[in-house]
Write a structure and sequence with these properties.
By secondary structure, the protein is an alpha+beta fold. The chain contains four helices and ten strands; from the N terminus they run ααββββββββαββα. Strand 7 and strand 8 form a beta hairpin.
């Protein structure tokens, strides 16, 4: 069956004629039970150094191009309303992680260790892949949207340095307009992008109110790890 171009305005009109409320019907899809995920900030690493930061809304039945929003200038400004350290360990050849954890606490029924701090896989350069998962609010195309961004191991140091600066300034993370900018790195024959993190002033009162609501609304997302959290290149390759 060939994929056909779907025009959402035409669908909405057809539903309306038949007595359906499209917005009300869409509400049923935005639930935890349906496996709802926020759009994700992703990075495409390029061998020529022209790395790309974009927002991935996931697969749909619409035109592929409509599901990606390129972030201009390789720089994103956002308010961070939640932060977690997540980990996952894969055995060679396996598609499902043998163990995963949120903030050093393993999730699942058969963890390798009681705590990541006591697990030999979680040491520096170990086989367990660490990431920092951030929940953000950012203005995209004139609209404030919630997003997920996972910082890879090479970018975690920049996030930790940012938090130390905020601490010395007596500022909580959520108070800052945090900047995320791609930096080209070349080392030992490899080339990739790291995320440099900074600050662009204090978040507005309106954004802070939205961030407080978002933290409560999306709390369920912070209690689980999904396949999308470790779907970047190299995530599932044991060291």
């Amino acid at each position: 069956m060939e994929t056909q171009l779907i025009e959402t305005d035409a669908v909405k009109q057809a539903l309306s004629v038949a007595g359906w409320d499209m917005d009300k019907e869409l509400e049923g899809l935005h639930t935890e039970a349906s496996g709802f995920e926020l759009p994700r900030v992703r990075i495409e690493h390029k061998d020529n150094g022209k790395h790309r930061m974009y927002i991935d809304s996931g697969e749909s039945y619409l035109d592929d191009d409509s599901q990606e929003i390129v972030i201009p200038g390789k720089k994103l400004i956002a308010v961070v309303f939640a932060e977690q350290m997540i980990r996952a360990f894969w055995k060679e050849g396996e598609e499902v992680p043998a163990c995963s954890a949120i903030d050093d606490r393993p999730v699942g029924n058969d963890p390798i260790a009681e705590s990541c701090k006591h697990c030999h896989h979680s040491v520096i350069s170990g086989a367990c892949k660490p990431k920092v998962r951030l929940l953000l609010l950012a203005e995209i195309d004139g609209e404030v949207k919630p997003l997920i961004m996972n910082l890879s191991p090479t970018s975690i140091k920049h996030w930790n340095a940012h938090k130390k600066k905020l601490q010395r300034s007596n500022l909580p993370v959520v108070a800052a307009n945090t900047t995320f900018e791609l930096v080209d790195i070349k080392k030992n024959g490899y080339r990739w992008a790291e995320v440099k993190i900074g600050m662009d002033g204090i978040a507005s009162k309106e954004l802070l109110i939205l961030a407080r609501t978002a933290r409560t609304e999306f709390e369920a997302l912070t209690k689980r790890i999904s396949d999308a959290d470790f779907s970047d290149s190299g995530d599932k390759q044991p060291s």
